[in-house]
Amino acid sequence: MKKIQMVDLKSQYEKIKDQVDAGIQEVIDTTTFIKGGKVNDFQKNLEKYLDVKHVIPVGNGTDALQIALMALGLKQGDEVITPTFTFIATAEVVALLGLTPVVVDVDFDTFNISVESVKKAITPKTKAIVPVHLFGQNADMEAILELAKEYGLYVVEDACQSIGSVYNFADGRKVKSGCMGNIGCTSFFPSKNLGCYGDGGALFTNDDELAAKIRAIANHGMVVRYHHDIVGVNSRLDSIQAAILDVKLKYLDEYIYNRQAAANYYDKAFENCERLIVPVRNEKSTHVFHQYTLKLRNIDRAGLQKYLESKGIPAMIYYPVPLHLQKAYQDERYKPGDFPVAEELSACVLSLPMHTELSVEQLEYITKSVLEYVV
Ligand SMILES: *Cc1c(COP(=O)(O)O)cnc(C)c1O
Hints:
alpha/beta; Aspartate Aminotransferase, domain 2; Aspartate Aminotransferase, domain 1; seven-stranded mixed beta sheet; three-stranded antiparallel beta sheet; 12 strands; binds pyridoxal-5'-phosphate
């Protein structure tokens, strides 16, 4: 049996090696390392895949979030609502821009932002909501978009973990993750569902004006060469990464299928164990399983993690500390106990290996080992 890893990028690469290597070689042969053919090809193909008007590739997912907030023209003191149970980048860019991050609790079932909590957090200073489609499942976007409309707020989707996931609106429309709000952001970090071999990210929007502004901001605020109309940054996807992504995009649906098959295997193996709460599938959204995250009930998490480690099985805690309890974000507004669901999740979640190359043999070994400790 192959060594079990949280993510097995090597085995995945081996299956597409010829195409990836040829793509990289082509970039080197043409020496168009920045911008140019491969980036344009990938952009067009991703627009088609997502059915969105504009994809703007940038340097990484964190940049994408920052550029999104810059493009919306938010000003110092404007409040941006985001879940407290997420990766730090979401709140980080809000803080870096001098905006005020307002964190809210999440739903226990889905790990995603609680619409009720968002509603309660809206003030006259609120300008935007940044829902995070955590672990690969879309937040309750129908309700969030309604709320945004009612209060005149922007919605920036953090789709860094959910690319390819589909949301079903009540009227029958099916829309891909990141393409529902004003702007969607994603990351091509290697371990993400569509990962490159370095850093990468992108913004999505159906708004022509926003797209032009985003393009300018990502390129030093420049529309006409060496004329800088707005303050921008330098954030680009390089051509080698685009070449790799353009190959992998063709396999994204297959990769999602493999992740879902692994999740189904885990679900089935744990279905009779009351102390393991498997991820809840939401009928409004497909789940692309960036992570397969269990909630443990009356189980010594550190003990289980150690036991699995002794058997060669990695397991990770995403995320051990909610944003409002992070040192850098300590704030007189928040104290322990303020967001009980997020705090409970931080104490009971455990993510098992999840990637596109898990074999039945590996899944059998992992689930057996978990149950040995738990039952
Ligand atoms: C990975 C991730 C990011 C940041 O992406 P980078 O490309 O690493 O900058 C932001 N938000 C979430 C939820 C993520 O998972």
